[in-house]
Amino acid sequence: xxxxxxxxxxxxxxxxxxxxxxxxxxxxxxxxxxxxxxxxxxxxxxxxxxxxxxxxxxxxxxxxxxxxxxxxxxxxxxxxxxxxxxxxxxxxxxxxxxxxxxxxxxxxxxxxxxxxxxxxxxxxxxx
Length: 127
Hints:
The protein is globular and about 50 Å long. Strands 1, 2, 3, 4 and 5 form a five-stranded antiparallel beta sheet that branches. It has four helices and five strands. It is α+β, with helices and mostly antiparallel strands.
């Protein structure tokens, strides 16, 4: 029997007009300290993006998400934050912000399969 793994996840949100606090879910970041696991995924629907009637540029938001992904993955393209250890990167990515890309508070869980749980949460909360 496989042992359960403790993890935390946060939903990534697009907040087109920060002052109105309206948002929609566009991604998920999940990590497990003991398993040295971190994963981020995004789905930004162009049609939903246009419906928000905002002045944001779709390609610019896509680039921000790519930077977010690079930081989570620890890639050099992610800059100095990406070189931090996994828990520090997760904490930086989920820190409270007042920008157009925000995250929910982290939520805990446990699972025997981190990737399968990531996919399930991504389907339920983002797609």
